[in-house]
Amino acid sequence: MGRDELKKINSELNERIVKNIKTLLEIKGISYYQLQKKIEKEEVYTISPAHLNKVLNHPTENSMPLAYLMQCCDFFDVTLDTMVTASLTAENYFQKSNDGTQKLIDTVALIKDYDKKLHNAENLSSQEKDKERSQSSLFIEDPNNNLFSSFLQTYFCYFYPTVSNENKTIDSILSGTLTLEPDMDRCKVTLKIDTKKEKNNNKIYKTYEGTAVISSAVNNIHCTLKSEEIGEFCYIIFRHFHLNFALQDCHIAAVLSTSSAGNSKERYPTLLRMFLSREEISQEDLKLLAPHLWLNYSQITISEKGLLDLASISDEYDKIVRDLFSKTESDFMYLFKERDVISLAKNYLENEEIVRFITELRLQSYAYHYNKVSDTVETTVRNLLISLGYYKNNM
After folding, report:
1. Contact yes or no for 237/120 (Cβ under 8 A)
2. Which of 18, 182, 336, 392 is most buried as measured by Cβ atoms within 10 A of its Cβ?
3. With a threshold of 0.70, does the pTM exceed it?
Protein backbone atom coordinates (compact mmCIF):
# COMPACT_ATOMS: atom_id res chain seq x y z
CA MET A 1 0.00 0.00 0.00
CA GLY A 2 1.39 3.37 -1.05
CA ARG A 3 1.35 6.59 0.94
CA ASP A 4 -1.37 8.14 -1.23
CA GLU A 5 -3.63 5.10 -0.88
CA LEU A 6 -3.17 5.08 2.90
CA LYS A 7 -3.99 8.79 3.08
CA LYS A 8 -7.20 8.25 1.11
CA ILE A 9 -8.31 5.36 3.36
CA ASN A 10 -7.60 7.35 6.56
CA SER A 11 -9.47 10.31 5.18
CA GLU A 12 -12.52 8.18 4.33
CA LEU A 13 -12.54 6.55 7.78
CA ASN A 14 -12.21 9.92 9.55
CA GLU A 15 -15.17 11.30 7.57
CA ARG A 16 -17.25 8.25 8.52
CA ILE A 17 -16.37 8.61 12.21
CA VAL A 18 -17.12 12.34 12.26
CA LYS A 19 -20.44 11.80 10.45
CA ASN A 20 -21.41 9.08 12.92
CA ILE A 21 -20.47 11.18 15.97
CA LYS A 22 -22.59 14.04 14.65
CA THR A 23 -25.47 11.60 14.14
CA LEU A 24 -25.11 10.33 17.72
CA LEU A 25 -24.95 13.92 19.03
CA GLU A 26 -28.27 14.65 17.28
CA ILE A 27 -29.82 11.52 18.79
CA LYS A 28 -28.59 12.53 22.28
CA GLY A 29 -29.59 16.16 21.69
CA ILE A 30 -26.24 17.60 22.78
CA SER A 31 -23.47 19.64 21.14
CA TYR A 32 -19.89 18.49 20.64
CA TYR A 33 -18.86 20.94 23.40
CA GLN A 34 -21.26 19.28 25.84
CA LEU A 35 -19.94 15.89 24.69
CA GLN A 36 -16.42 16.94 25.49
CA LYS A 37 -17.34 18.28 28.92
CA LYS A 38 -19.18 15.08 29.84
CA ILE A 39 -16.25 12.93 28.71
CA GLU A 40 -13.77 15.17 30.60
CA LYS A 41 -15.91 14.67 33.71
CA GLU A 42 -15.75 10.90 33.41
CA GLU A 43 -12.26 10.46 32.04
CA VAL A 44 -8.96 11.60 33.56
CA TYR A 45 -7.13 11.53 30.24
CA THR A 46 -8.79 12.77 27.04
CA ILE A 47 -8.34 15.27 24.20
CA SER A 48 -9.02 19.01 24.45
CA PRO A 49 -12.13 20.73 23.02
CA ALA A 50 -9.92 22.52 20.50
CA HIS A 51 -8.53 19.20 19.27
CA LEU A 52 -12.04 17.75 18.96
CA ASN A 53 -13.16 20.83 17.03
CA LYS A 54 -10.36 20.36 14.49
CA VAL A 55 -11.22 16.68 14.00
CA LEU A 56 -14.94 17.32 13.56
CA ASN A 57 -14.56 20.27 11.20
CA HIS A 58 -11.51 19.11 9.23
CA PRO A 59 -11.61 15.30 9.20
CA THR A 60 -9.48 14.94 6.06
CA GLU A 61 -6.60 16.77 7.76
CA ASN A 62 -6.93 15.61 11.38
CA SER A 63 -7.25 11.97 12.45
CA MET A 64 -9.48 10.93 15.30
CA PRO A 65 -7.26 9.49 18.10
CA LEU A 66 -8.12 5.83 18.70
CA ALA A 67 -8.29 6.31 22.48
CA TYR A 68 -10.85 9.13 22.11
CA LEU A 69 -12.87 7.11 19.61
CA MET A 70 -13.14 4.32 22.19
CA GLN A 71 -14.13 6.87 24.87
CA CYS A 72 -16.93 8.04 22.55
CA CYS A 73 -18.05 4.42 22.12
CA ASP A 74 -18.27 4.05 25.90
CA PHE A 75 -20.14 7.37 26.27
CA PHE A 76 -22.72 6.63 23.54
CA ASP A 77 -22.82 2.96 24.64
CA VAL A 78 -22.19 1.66 21.12
CA THR A 79 -19.75 -0.80 19.62
CA LEU A 80 -16.62 0.19 17.75
CA ASP A 81 -18.22 -1.25 14.61
CA THR A 82 -21.02 1.28 14.96
CA MET A 83 -18.54 4.17 15.05
CA VAL A 84 -16.90 3.19 11.76
CA THR A 85 -19.91 1.92 9.82
CA ALA A 86 -20.85 3.69 6.60
CA SER A 87 -24.61 3.35 7.15
CA LEU A 88 -25.42 4.72 10.63
CA THR A 89 -28.70 6.63 10.88
CA ALA A 90 -31.06 7.64 13.67
CA GLU A 91 -33.39 4.85 12.52
CA ASN A 92 -30.92 1.95 12.69
CA TYR A 93 -29.03 3.16 15.78
CA PHE A 94 -29.11 0.84 18.75
CA GLN A 95 -27.27 0.70 22.06
CA LYS A 96 -25.26 -2.23 23.39
CA SER A 97 -27.23 -4.56 25.62
CA ASN A 98 -26.60 -3.90 29.30
CA ASP A 99 -24.88 -7.22 29.97
CA GLY A 100 -22.16 -5.96 32.29
CA THR A 101 -19.60 -5.70 29.48
CA GLN A 102 -16.57 -3.70 30.53
CA LYS A 103 -15.72 -0.37 28.99
CA LEU A 104 -13.69 -0.44 25.82
CA ILE A 105 -11.00 1.68 27.38
CA ASP A 106 -9.84 2.60 30.87
CA THR A 107 -7.25 5.32 30.35
CA VAL A 108 -6.25 5.47 34.02
CA ALA A 109 -5.51 1.74 34.06
CA LEU A 110 -3.66 2.04 30.75
CA ILE A 111 -1.45 4.85 32.05
CA LYS A 112 -0.70 2.94 35.27
CA ASP A 113 0.11 -0.20 33.29
CA TYR A 114 2.34 1.76 30.94
CA ASP A 115 4.18 3.45 33.81
CA LYS A 116 4.65 0.07 35.50
CA LYS A 117 6.08 -1.47 32.32
CA LEU A 118 8.33 1.55 31.79
CA HIS A 119 9.53 1.34 35.39
CA ASN A 120 10.24 -2.39 35.03
CA ALA A 121 12.03 -1.77 31.74
CA GLU A 122 14.13 0.99 33.32
CA ASN A 123 15.00 -1.29 36.25
CA LEU A 124 15.89 -4.10 33.85
CA SER A 125 17.94 -1.72 31.74
CA SER A 126 19.66 -0.45 34.86
CA GLN A 127 20.41 -4.02 35.96
CA GLU A 128 21.75 -4.84 32.50
CA LYS A 129 23.92 -1.74 32.55
CA ASP A 130 25.18 -2.65 36.02
CA LYS A 131 25.92 -6.15 34.72
CA GLU A 132 27.72 -4.70 31.69
CA ARG A 133 29.72 -2.38 33.92
CA SER A 134 30.53 -5.34 36.17
CA GLN A 135 31.57 -7.42 33.17
CA SER A 136 33.56 -4.57 31.62
CA SER A 137 35.36 -3.97 34.91
CA LEU A 138 36.68 -7.52 34.64
CA PHE A 139 38.12 -6.80 31.19
CA ILE A 140 40.01 -3.51 31.11
CA GLU A 141 40.68 -2.20 27.60
CA ASP A 142 41.12 1.54 28.18
CA PRO A 143 44.88 2.32 28.20
CA ASN A 144 44.19 5.38 30.37
CA ASN A 145 43.22 3.07 33.23
CA ASN A 146 45.84 3.14 35.99
CA LEU A 147 46.30 -0.62 35.73
CA PHE A 148 47.89 -0.09 32.32
CA SER A 149 50.26 2.66 33.48
CA SER A 150 53.29 0.49 34.25
CA PHE A 151 52.96 -1.64 31.11
CA LEU A 152 52.82 1.00 28.36
CA GLN A 153 56.32 0.72 26.94
CA THR A 154 58.43 -1.10 24.39
CA TYR A 155 59.75 -4.46 25.58
CA PHE A 156 62.68 -6.29 24.03
CA CYS A 157 61.50 -9.84 23.47
CA TYR A 158 63.39 -13.13 23.12
CA PHE A 159 62.15 -16.59 22.16
CA TYR A 160 63.15 -19.75 20.33
CA PRO A 161 62.20 -20.33 16.67
CA THR A 162 59.24 -22.61 16.02
CA VAL A 163 61.19 -24.72 13.52
CA SER A 164 62.92 -27.60 15.34
CA ASN A 165 66.10 -27.63 13.24
CA GLU A 166 66.61 -23.90 13.91
CA ASN A 167 66.51 -23.92 17.72
CA LYS A 168 69.33 -26.29 18.64
CA THR A 169 71.73 -23.68 20.04
CA ILE A 170 71.75 -20.56 22.20
CA ASP A 171 72.56 -18.48 19.11
CA SER A 172 69.27 -19.49 17.54
CA ILE A 173 67.18 -17.33 19.94
CA LEU A 174 65.14 -14.80 18.00
CA SER A 175 64.65 -11.23 19.18
CA GLY A 176 62.24 -8.41 18.53
CA THR A 177 60.14 -5.77 20.24
CA LEU A 178 56.68 -5.79 21.78
CA THR A 179 55.15 -2.32 22.12
CA LEU A 180 52.08 -1.47 24.20
CA GLU A 181 50.77 2.07 23.60
CA PRO A 182 47.54 4.08 23.86
CA ASP A 183 45.39 4.23 20.72
CA MET A 184 42.31 6.27 21.65
CA ASP A 185 40.20 3.98 23.89
CA ARG A 186 42.22 0.81 23.35
CA CYS A 187 45.71 -0.44 24.06
CA LYS A 188 47.49 -1.09 20.77
CA VAL A 189 50.09 -3.86 20.66
CA THR A 190 52.77 -4.26 17.99
CA LEU A 191 55.09 -7.26 17.81
CA LYS A 192 58.07 -6.83 15.49
CA ILE A 193 60.31 -9.90 15.03
CA ASP A 194 63.81 -9.93 13.54
CA THR A 195 63.79 -13.06 11.36
CA LYS A 196 67.62 -13.02 11.03
CA LYS A 197 67.12 -12.98 7.28
CA GLU A 198 67.86 -10.28 4.74
CA LYS A 199 66.60 -9.17 1.37
CA ASN A 200 68.58 -6.68 -0.70
CA ASN A 201 70.81 -6.05 2.34
CA ASN A 202 67.76 -5.10 4.43
CA LYS A 203 66.63 -7.02 7.48
CA ILE A 204 63.35 -8.90 7.13
CA TYR A 205 60.85 -8.40 9.97
CA LYS A 206 57.57 -10.12 10.75
CA THR A 207 55.06 -7.68 12.20
CA TYR A 208 51.87 -8.44 14.11
CA GLU A 209 49.38 -5.86 15.37
CA GLY A 210 46.46 -6.10 17.76
CA THR A 211 45.15 -5.07 21.16
CA ALA A 212 45.76 -5.86 24.83
CA VAL A 213 43.14 -6.46 27.52
CA ILE A 214 43.74 -6.79 31.26
CA SER A 215 41.68 -9.44 33.01
CA SER A 216 41.34 -8.14 36.56
CA ALA A 217 39.75 -11.42 37.62
CA VAL A 218 42.83 -13.55 36.90
CA ASN A 219 45.47 -10.76 36.81
CA ASN A 220 46.76 -11.44 33.32
CA ILE A 221 47.31 -9.34 30.21
CA HIS A 222 45.93 -10.90 27.04
CA CYS A 223 47.32 -9.73 23.68
CA THR A 224 45.53 -10.76 20.50
CA LEU A 225 47.65 -10.06 17.43
CA LYS A 226 47.55 -10.82 13.74
CA SER A 227 49.62 -10.28 10.62
CA GLU A 228 47.59 -9.30 7.57
CA GLU A 229 50.65 -9.92 5.39
CA ILE A 230 51.05 -13.60 6.21
CA GLY A 231 47.51 -14.30 7.45
CA GLU A 232 48.52 -15.45 10.91
CA PHE A 233 47.30 -14.90 14.48
CA CYS A 234 49.45 -14.78 17.60
CA TYR A 235 48.29 -14.80 21.23
CA ILE A 236 50.50 -13.60 24.09
CA ILE A 237 49.60 -13.86 27.79
CA PHE A 238 51.65 -12.68 30.75
CA ARG A 239 51.02 -11.92 34.40
CA HIS A 240 49.73 -8.52 35.51
CA PHE A 241 50.75 -7.04 38.83
CA HIS A 242 50.50 -3.38 39.76
CA LEU A 243 52.58 -2.21 42.68
CA ASN A 244 53.38 1.34 41.62
CA PHE A 245 53.57 3.48 38.51
CA ALA A 246 57.14 2.42 37.65
CA LEU A 247 57.55 0.58 34.36
CA GLN A 248 57.68 -3.19 34.72
CA ASP A 249 61.15 -4.71 34.34
CA CYS A 250 60.40 -8.05 32.73
CA HIS A 251 57.94 -10.86 32.19
CA ILE A 252 57.91 -14.38 30.85
CA ALA A 253 54.93 -14.78 28.56
CA ALA A 254 53.13 -17.78 27.15
CA VAL A 255 52.68 -17.61 23.39
CA LEU A 256 50.27 -19.49 21.15
CA SER A 257 51.30 -19.19 17.53
CA THR A 258 51.84 -21.16 14.32
CA SER A 259 55.10 -22.88 13.46
CA SER A 260 57.29 -21.21 10.88
CA ALA A 261 57.19 -22.86 7.50
CA GLY A 262 60.87 -23.80 7.20
CA ASN A 263 61.16 -26.03 4.16
CA SER A 264 57.61 -27.31 4.56
CA LYS A 265 54.30 -25.73 3.66
CA GLU A 266 52.66 -27.40 6.63
CA ARG A 267 52.04 -25.09 9.61
CA TYR A 268 51.22 -26.41 13.08
CA PRO A 269 49.81 -24.83 16.26
CA THR A 270 52.78 -24.09 18.52
CA LEU A 271 53.27 -23.26 22.21
CA LEU A 272 56.36 -21.42 23.45
CA ARG A 273 57.71 -19.02 26.03
CA MET A 274 58.79 -15.45 25.35
CA PHE A 275 60.91 -13.24 27.60
CA LEU A 276 59.95 -9.55 27.72
CA SER A 277 62.43 -7.01 29.07
CA ARG A 278 62.41 -3.21 29.22
CA GLU A 279 66.19 -3.35 28.72
CA GLU A 280 67.97 -5.08 25.87
CA ILE A 281 69.82 -8.25 26.88
CA SER A 282 73.37 -8.70 25.57
CA GLN A 283 74.28 -11.74 23.47
CA GLU A 284 76.66 -12.82 26.21
CA ASP A 285 73.86 -12.90 28.82
CA LEU A 286 71.34 -14.60 26.55
CA LYS A 287 72.92 -17.98 27.30
CA LEU A 288 71.87 -17.56 30.96
CA LEU A 289 68.38 -16.59 29.89
CA ALA A 290 68.02 -19.48 27.42
CA PRO A 291 67.07 -22.35 29.79
CA HIS A 292 64.22 -20.28 31.23
CA LEU A 293 62.68 -20.14 27.77
CA TRP A 294 62.40 -23.92 27.68
CA LEU A 295 59.15 -25.54 28.76
CA ASN A 296 60.51 -26.43 32.18
CA TYR A 297 58.69 -28.17 35.00
CA SER A 298 59.17 -28.42 38.76
CA GLN A 299 61.14 -31.64 38.27
CA ILE A 300 64.47 -31.47 36.45
CA THR A 301 65.46 -34.33 34.15
CA ILE A 302 69.15 -34.44 33.22
CA SER A 303 71.61 -37.05 31.99
CA GLU A 304 74.62 -38.23 34.01
CA LYS A 305 76.92 -36.62 31.44
CA GLY A 306 75.07 -33.33 31.86
CA LEU A 307 75.60 -33.42 35.62
CA LEU A 308 79.31 -34.20 35.24
CA ASP A 309 79.69 -31.31 32.78
CA LEU A 310 77.99 -29.08 35.35
CA ALA A 311 80.32 -30.30 38.11
CA SER A 312 83.39 -29.35 36.07
CA ILE A 313 82.46 -25.63 36.10
CA SER A 314 83.69 -24.99 39.67
CA ASP A 315 84.56 -26.69 42.97
CA GLU A 316 81.31 -25.49 44.50
CA TYR A 317 79.32 -26.90 41.61
CA ASP A 318 81.22 -30.16 41.94
CA LYS A 319 80.27 -30.45 45.62
CA ILE A 320 76.58 -29.82 44.86
CA VAL A 321 76.59 -32.45 42.10
CA ARG A 322 78.29 -35.03 44.38
CA ASP A 323 75.56 -34.40 46.98
CA LEU A 324 72.93 -34.88 44.31
CA PHE A 325 74.49 -38.22 43.34
CA SER A 326 74.73 -39.44 46.92
CA LYS A 327 71.61 -38.00 48.55
CA THR A 328 68.91 -38.29 45.93
CA GLU A 329 67.34 -41.36 44.41
CA SER A 330 68.53 -42.04 40.87
CA ASP A 331 66.81 -43.82 38.00
CA PHE A 332 67.79 -44.64 34.45
CA MET A 333 66.00 -42.56 31.82
CA TYR A 334 65.87 -43.38 28.12
CA LEU A 335 65.45 -40.83 25.36
CA PHE A 336 63.91 -42.00 22.08
CA LYS A 337 62.81 -40.21 18.95
CA GLU A 338 59.33 -41.30 17.95
CA ARG A 339 60.33 -41.94 14.35
CA ASP A 340 63.06 -44.35 15.53
CA VAL A 341 60.54 -46.24 17.67
CA ILE A 342 58.15 -46.51 14.73
CA SER A 343 60.94 -47.76 12.48
CA LEU A 344 61.84 -50.55 14.93
CA ALA A 345 58.20 -51.43 15.63
CA LYS A 346 57.61 -52.08 11.93
CA ASN A 347 59.78 -55.20 12.27
CA TYR A 348 57.22 -56.76 14.60
CA LEU A 349 53.83 -55.04 14.20
CA GLU A 350 51.33 -54.12 11.54
CA ASN A 351 50.69 -50.40 10.93
CA GLU A 352 47.47 -50.24 12.95
CA GLU A 353 49.17 -52.04 15.87
CA ILE A 354 52.13 -49.62 15.80
CA VAL A 355 49.80 -46.74 16.67
CA ARG A 356 48.57 -48.69 19.71
CA PHE A 357 52.14 -49.46 20.76
CA ILE A 358 53.16 -45.79 20.54
CA THR A 359 50.12 -44.90 22.66
CA GLU A 360 51.03 -47.47 25.33
CA LEU A 361 54.65 -46.25 25.28
CA ARG A 362 53.49 -42.68 25.82
CA LEU A 363 51.36 -43.84 28.77
CA GLN A 364 54.49 -45.26 30.43
CA SER A 365 56.62 -42.19 29.66
CA TYR A 366 57.34 -39.20 31.85
CA ALA A 367 55.47 -36.06 30.75
CA TYR A 368 53.43 -33.26 32.29
CA HIS A 369 49.86 -32.59 31.19
CA TYR A 370 50.38 -28.82 30.99
CA ASN A 371 53.04 -26.15 31.37
CA LYS A 372 52.66 -22.87 33.22
CA VAL A 373 54.73 -19.73 33.68
CA SER A 374 54.96 -19.42 37.47
CA ASP A 375 56.12 -16.46 39.53
CA THR A 376 59.10 -18.59 40.53
CA VAL A 377 60.58 -18.50 37.04
CA GLU A 378 59.83 -14.77 36.59
CA THR A 379 61.42 -13.93 39.94
CA THR A 380 64.43 -16.14 39.18
CA VAL A 381 65.07 -14.49 35.82
CA ARG A 382 64.59 -10.96 37.16
CA ASN A 383 66.93 -11.55 40.11
CA LEU A 384 69.48 -13.12 37.75
CA LEU A 385 69.43 -10.06 35.46
CA ILE A 386 69.58 -7.64 38.40
CA SER A 387 72.72 -9.47 39.58
CA LEU A 388 74.16 -8.86 36.10
CA GLY A 389 73.48 -5.11 36.33
CA TYR A 390 70.10 -4.78 34.62
CA TYR A 391 67.13 -2.69 35.84
CA LYS A 392 69.18 -0.60 38.29
CA ASN A 393 67.42 2.65 37.30
CA ASN A 394 64.00 1.39 38.34
CA MET A 395 64.74 0.22 41.85
Report:
1. no
2. 18
3. no
Packed helices 107-138 and 66-76: angle between N→C axes, nearest 10 degrees = 150
176-181 long-range Cβ contacts below 8 angstroms, 24+ apart: 176/205, 178/154, 178/223, 178/236, 178/274, 178/276, 179/153, 179/154, 179/155, 180/143, 180/148, 180/151, 180/152, 180/153, 180/154, 180/155, 180/212, 181/143, 181/152
Q: Enumerate the H helices of the chain as residue ranges.
A: 3-28, 32-42, 49-57, 66-76, 80-84, 107-138, 283-289, 304-311, 315-327, 338-345, 351-364, 375-387
Collapsed DSSP state (helix, strand, coil) of residue 181: strand
- pLDDT of 101 over the 70 cut: no
Residue 273's identity, in one-letter code, is R
Mention every residue, 6+ apart, whose C-beta is less than 8 A from residue 159: 173, 174, 255, 272, 273, 274, 275, 293
pLDDT tens column, 265-320: 678 889 999 999 999 999 889 888 888 888 877 778 888 888 899 999 999 999 99
176, 385, 155, 193: which is closest to 287 by C-alpha? 385
H-type alpha helices, 208-347? 283-289, 304-311, 315-327, 338-345
CA dist 155 to 203, 281, 356, Å? 20, 11, 46
Strand (E) or helix (H) holding 273: strand 269-277
Expressed in angstroms, the distance from the first to the final Cα of the chain is 77
- Encode pLDDT of 40-70 as tens digits: 888 878 888 888 888 888 887 888 888 888 8
Q: For the stretch 25-36, what's the b/e string if a residue is b when 16 or more beta carbons lie within 10 angstroms of its beta carbon?
A: beeeeeebeebb
Find out whether 84 and 48 touch, Cβ atoms under 8 Å: no
Q: How far apart are CA 281 and CA 278, in angstroms?
A: 9
CA angle 184, 252, 390 (to 5 degrees): 95
